[in-house]
Amino acid sequence: MWLHPLDRSLLALATALPETSYESLADWPLGCRNRALAELRCACFGPSLQAWMTCPQCGERLEFEMDAGSLAREPNEPGPREPIFANGRSFRLPTSRDLARVARESDSRLAAIRLLEGCLLEGGVTRPWCDEDMEEVGEKMARADPLAETRLALQCAACGHEWDETLNIAAFVWTEIEARAKRLLFEIHTLASAYGWTEKEILSLGDRRRASYMEMAQH
């Protein structure tokens, strides 16, 4: 079953936080969601986050590593927040639900306007949006919720090109969960074929013991 990236991140959190409803998670500010995903990532895979990307200038493949624990340690909890005021209007912070509403909008400027209008609190003044207004609101939202977007400053070792890249922690977590699930299915298939064990019996083994059996079964 195909899931939108927004749904994937919420599904991962809903599984890790069964006491919190899916609807409630969808209403968390983005920074709270990202912090919780970083915590989940550290708990399941450790704090070291390794990845690679291609230099947009010369095409060189670059590897980088960062500490996902630094995101998990940021004080950013769900709960009521003070409104953000800009040019006579008040706003709340964007949530996953807000992003879902504008996900299919192809025009980036129109998507940003729709996002801000969705965060406009009742009683706000409605008037046309100019670039200066949008920039001011965006900057104030970024200061109020710094984990909503994490920017990485990168430099190519081959050509020296410098650029910024957005860290998508939700995509990282889901990719690693998918890879772990596929590996586990392969281990279940291999051990069931070799020893006739049930899936429940195989899953009851610890990771190290299961790895030892896998090594013997493949030789």
Structure commentary:
The protein is an alpha+beta fold. It has 2 domains: 5-166, no CATH class; 176-217, no CATH class. 52% of the residues lie in helices and 15% in strands. The protein contains 10 helices and 6 strands; from the N terminus they run H-H-H-E-E-H-E-E-H-H-H-E-E-H-H-H. The chain has helices spanning 5-16, 22-26, 30-45, 69-72, 96-102, 108-119, 131-144, 169-195, 199-203, 207-217; strands spanning 48-54, 61-67, 84-86, 89-91, 150-155, 162-167. The strands form 3 sheets. The protein has a two-stranded antiparallel sheet. A hairpin with a 2-residue loop joins strand 3 (84-86) and strand 4 (89-91). Helix 1 crosses helix 3. The longest helix has 27 residues, at 169-195. The radius of gyration is 22 Å and the shape is globular. The mean pLDDT is 90.
Short characterization:
The protein is of the alpha+beta class and 219 residues long. The chain is 52% helix and 15% strand. It has two domains: 5-166, no CATH class; 176-217, no CATH class.
